[in-house]
Amino acid sequence: MSPVTLAGLLALPFLVSIYTVYFGRWLARRGYGLGALGVYLLALLTLALPGWMPPSR
Length: 57
Prior knowledge:
It contains two helices and no strands. The chain is mainly α. Helix 1 (3-29) runs antiparallel to helix 2 (33-52). The N and C termini lie close together (10 Å).
């Protein structure tokens, strides 16, 4: 897989994780610390899993 294709495939999860982190910040400011922690974990998984999955052949 070419680097340009890989970067294109990882762009959407990156944008989703940025939005998710901002939502976690919003939750934390309103006193939902545990919910914010869960959302941060979800954002981390959103970034980690697409990069970890081996490419299909």
